[in-house]
Design a protein that fits this description.
One of its GO terms (molecular function) is phosphoric diester hydrolase activity. By secondary structure, this protein is an alpha/beta fold. The chain is about 30% helix and about 15% strand. β3 and β4 form a beta hairpin.
Length: about 500
């Protein structure tokens, strides 16, 4: 059977079917196509613009009009200049300048607040002013409360006395006063090096090195034979126990040696409450610590009163250590001075703290015995009391100093011994030492009032404005009173500038 030829109607139907197959599908996801046009027509028509892009250009960062530009990211919109190079719009250039001003202002603020000089300007409080931390107070002061004296708010109190050699170096040694600590080795919270808990009172807050660095120049040490060595103990009955032993004496004596080797113009005195029975025991421990070479020979000490060697001569000759023992025989046997041959000393403990009195202790000559050139004033309780020490070391200490001056033939104390020397409600033991030095060196109410010619400046009873032994040049600088408002003015002013930019 032959093939059937398509009719005209069938050919027309096929052509219509092929046309339907070639028609493009209408997909909504595909971008609409633009019919090609001639170049002349394209030149007359505006270019196509994406709606989302135009909206983004109208609102480049979708922020509030009043929002600071420094908070926008990215900070500047980059575009193409006429020659095709990247650039920044004028508006964004202004924003960048403002941001740079902010950064500079913050940098200045941080520099001012972190520099040592700024700390002094902001925080240098004087004696008696309220504080929160030690660094709020000027150099030589620390921040502490004295609840026993009704001072519940922390205040800046004196710690470091004025160095008397800063006023005069060429006076006899008995014309100077020195801050002294009782039981200098019995530090608060210290454990025995025997490994046993201490069952005896503590008397100080600092190590011996810290005491020396803060102006203490007299140390009271109790020495005992213990464990085939010489130990520092705070014991009873002349016997050292595991629970009353602190550490070998050579450890503390080496601290003194290091201080003297690093401070070649300083003189230190050690009072030994001597329970050492071993032959040449003190001599051995002094040799082992390296202190023997600094010892002032006994032959240079006045035996019947009179003046001691000049301080400057003692420093020049290297005799910068005085050691006194409570055992008379050791002066001849070991060349260590017997204390009460050279010193008068008042009654220690609670009995010696009766107001208006200053009687001598049993071992000492009378307080007004002028055959002893040095005067030691004790002012501490039988049992050390940390809370009460701030009260004891304040006005009562000044009263005791004046009473002993009158009872000692109008001689000011050369040594002032206290517990917890850092504690007081104002000037404390440091101010008492300054008062004694003022009387001994120039007859003034305080050493700060002594002039080079031996006269007193007006208002000679004032507490010294400048504190010696400052740790840095910045700490030694004192700003004018107007700059004390820096804390209240500086930060708000900088914040106001930042908010206005």
């Amino acid at each position: 059977m032959g093939r059937r030829l398509p009719t005209a109607k069938m050919r027309a139907r096929r052509r219509n079917g092929k046309a339907k197959l070639k028609r493009p599908r209408n997909k909504t996801a595909r971008a609409p196509t633009t019919p090609l046009a001639s170049p002349a027509l394209q030149a007359t028509q505006p270019p196509l613009v994406d709606a989302s892009a135009s909206e983004s250009e109208a609102k480049p960062h979708n922020r509030r009009p009043d929002a600071p530009s420094a908070l926008v990211w990215p900070p500047a919109a980059v575009f193409r200049t006429r020659n095709g190079a990247p650039g920044t719009s004028p508006e964004m250039a202004g924003d960048r300048a403002a941001a740079l001003v902010r950064i500079a202002a913050v940098g200045v603020l941080l520099a001012l607040c972190s520099s040592p000089a700024a700390v002094v300007v902001v925080s240098a409080r004087k004696v008696g002013q309220t504080c929160a931390l030690d660094r709020n107070c000027a150099a030589g002061l620390h921040c502490e409360t004295c609840v026993a004296n009704g001072n519940v708010r922390p205040r800046c109190t004196r710690v470091v006395p004025v160095g008397p050699q800063t006023k005069a170096r060429d006076l006899p040694f008995n014309r100077y006063a020195w801050l002294t600590t009782h039981n200098s080795f019995a530090r608060l919270g210290q454990r025995s090096q025997t490994g046993v808990a201490i069952a005896t009172p503590w008397s100080q807050q600092d190590t011996v090195t810290e005491q020396l660095n803060r102006g203490v120049r007299g140390l009271m040490l109790d020495m005992y034979d213990f464990r085939n060595d010489i130990w520092l103990c705070h014991s009873y009955g002349g016997i050292c126990q595991n629970f009353t032993a602190f550490q070998p004496a050579v450890n503390v004596l080496r601290e003194v040696e290091r201080f003297l080797s690093r401070n070649r113009a300083e003189v230190v005195t050690i009072f030994v409450e001597d329970y050492v029975e071993s032959p040449m025991g003190l001599t051995r421990v002094l040799n082992a610590s390296g202190l023997a070479r600094y010892l002032l020979p006994v032959w240079r000490m006045p035996k019947a009163g009179g003046d001691w060697p000049l301080l400057s001569d003692m420093v020049r000759d290297g005799h910068r250590l005085l050691v006194f023992t409570s055992k008379a025989a050791k002066e001849a046997a070991e060349g260590i001075a017997y204390e009460w041959r050279y010193v008068v000393e008042n009654q220690y403990g609670t009995k010696g703290m009766v107001k208006g009195t200053c009687r001598n202790r049993a071992e000492s000559a009378a307080m007004d015995d002028l055959s002893r050139s040095l005067v030691l004033v004790n002012y501490f309780r039988d049992l050390p009391a940390f809370p009460e020490a701030c009260k004891d070391n304040s006005a009562p200490l000044m009263d005791a100093l004046a009473a002993c001056h009158a009872k000692s033939g109008n001689r000011w104390a050369n040594y002032i011994a206290v517990d917890f020397y850092r504690r007081s409600d104002r000037g404390g033991a440091a101010a008492a030492t300054d008062k004694a030095n003022g009387g001994l060196i120039c007859g003034c109410g305080s050493i700060s009032a002594c002039n080079a010619n031996g006269t007193c400046t007006p208002h000679h009873g004032r507490t010294p404005k400048g504190i010696f032994n400052a740790s840095s040049d910045a700490a030694a600088w004192r700003p004018p009173p107007a700059l004390q408002w820096q804390r209240l003015v500086l930060l708000p002013a900088v914040l106001a500038v930042l908010l206005r930019l």
